[in-house]
Design brief:
Blueprint (H helix, E strand, L loop, with lengths): L7 H14 L7 H12 L1 H4 L16 H18 L3 E5 L3 E5 L1 H8 L4 H17 L4 H19 L1
Antiparallel strand pairs: 1-2
Helix pairs in contact: 1-4, 1-5, 1-6, 2-4, 2-6, 2-7
Length: about 150
């Protein structure tokens, strides 16, 4: 049986939406991971927002697996022409014209809610770089762990 949830199949469209919607010119894999995690679990990071994957007590343990999923998804999206590689101080990725066209085809309830959450995340955290976003996630994870004690 093929796994759909928490797989490349699930994360690839989210990366395309990030690259198309989030107002930055390009993204590293770590930045994709952080933005995707905060978007999926917006209820933890933005007052009044809802977690797209529910209230999961193990959500912060997903980060490690998500890094590998993003790595594999980015490779596939580059090979399929949805993302373009840029080399500066390492690898970064931007959306291609093909990716932009594909992003416009997402019409599911989940895609719409993801995009709405993504816009809220960009409004609140656009000035955060990937290190600041990672620190934010770590702080929230620690606070979450203290709450469960």
């Amino acid at each position: 049986m093929q796994r759909i949830y928490n797989s490349g199949f699930e994360i690839e469209p989210r990366l395309i939406l990030i690259a198309d919607t989030y107002p930055l010119p390009s993204f590293t894999e770590d930045l994709f991971v952080a933005i995707d995690f905060i978007t999926v679990y917006s209820g933890v990071f933005i007052s009044g927002a809802q977690n797209l994957h529910g209230d999961n007590g193990f959500k912060f343990s997903e980060i490690t697996a998500r890094r590998q999923l993003v790595h594999e998804a980015v490779k596939k999206l580059v090979l399929e022409g949805f993302l373009i590689v840029e080399i500066r101080e390492g690898f970064s990725y931007k959306i291609s014209d093909t990716g932009k066209k594909y992003a416009k085809s997402f019409e599911s309830t989940y895609a719409i809610q993801y995009k709405n959450n993504l816009l809220s995340v960009s409004e609140k955290y656009l000035d955060y770089d990937e290190k600041a976003l990672s620190k934010l996630i770590t702080e929230k994870a620690l606070a979450d762990g203290r709450e469960e004690m």
